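User: Teach me something about this protein's shape.
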Amino acid sequence: MTLARFREEPWRTSHGAYQESALAMSPAPEYASSEVILSSLYRHAGLEGATERTVPQRGRDLDKEVQWYRDRARKPDAAALDADTFHTLLHSVLESPKLPNQASKRFVQVTPLVPQAAVFSGSARLSSNSWPAGALVRRMVWLGSPDNAAAATIWQSLFEALSVTDDDDIFARFLQAEIKAWCPQPAWAAINSAEQATLDPVDQEGLDYPARRFVRDLASIIDAKDSMTRRQWTSLLEAIVRLAAVAHVTWLCDVHAKSWECIKAALDGNGPGDAAAARASMYPKAFQFLSYGDRALPGIKDRASAFLQARLGLNAVLWALDAAGVEAASLSSAAGLADVCDRLRSNAAKVEATGLRDVLADVSERETRTLLCKKGIGSNIMEFARHVLGQRQAANPLLRGYDQGFSLRKRGTSNSSPWVVGLGPVSVLALVHCSLAGTTGPRSVRRLSQHLAGYGAIVDYRDIATNDLGYQLRMLGLVLDSPDAESGMLLVPPFPKRQREPA
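Assistant: First, the predicted structure itself:
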């Protein structure tokens, strides 16, 4: 790959220094729903061999196998249900609502209540080229952890929580055993993660960002598992994962845009001169991308567009450095960014001779539709954000209340109604629980406001008493109104710790 080749195919291949960066958006997000992310997370945590590519075909094969047993009035030796009952279980009891554009399609899509269901259900696409959504969550765990050892520990804890054990409710244990009887391979077992992308410890110090918040919340959600049924717990996990995943992707967009501003300044002879200056310029000081009650997608679109422009610029500069005979440094940290800026300033004449500015102008003009998120990567990011955060629009109107863990809701009933920021009941429960983790007794709703700010979602705590968030908190019994009005609304822990019986 050369600068000339980049000019012809700017999105095809990224420079190695960019692609291997801890802050690269990898894997690139595409369409997914909350259940797709959870299913893929199962596959990445403990279903080795059940790749995204194999899931649609496994679903079709299972349907055929069940039909074969139905025709012969038989069942597998280890199964408790006959073929007719198991077919009803898959296509009625556990079936996840299809989207309006999927109403006429026939495929297996079930709620990812237990690990074995993810073997044949929950891919982003019905074809064989789905993106690995679970890898994005795994990368978030590593980026949000202080080091590889801590990341491996929380990843192992997540695997154990996702496993169905004797402590799970009886329906979850029955379901895991029954699906395993019909679809035994691959078996559920821990997979050693090859992920190594952690944020530079110097950069991480004092920095609050969505992946870091997610790792802390993930530990809180895992701790709450014993307080509820498996279905309730997986719903809470979904709610946190979907908000954190979109916040993480949007935060990366901001980091890319700010990094590109530093590089552009260096091309003009300026830019950060050391790692401390680069750190101050590279990372958002106050990350905000959602405002409660307001439209959400326009702001995400602006950030996705800025990310795409930054990605073009960063890769073009790295290829130009190669063409000038200058080795490019990694972009994984502020120190690496400062080093790249220094090399650009030191080799300004050589870099200019490569025609970098002409290449950037030509590519930006030619890729206008992509940069405006009308196609390609930008369009995929918008689909990801809309479907992960938004309440699922079911083809069957009777199932419109199926999804309660959303962060965006329709302002009206029309297809053209805008998506506005508004939390579903399950999201409210999950966030209140996480915001109170490690505390004793009630806390002010200001704590919930601060917790949401960690994900870039802004809500003025003084408005909570009168908006729909306050209404939901009251309906769910999660607040107490202070009688003296000095403390305002006080949050109540939704899941008191269960008292263990003495041995």
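Now, about its shape. Residues 326 and 496 are 59 Å apart (CA to CA). The chain has a mean pLDDT of 92. If you'd like, I can walk through any region in more detail.
User: That's plenty for now, thanks!
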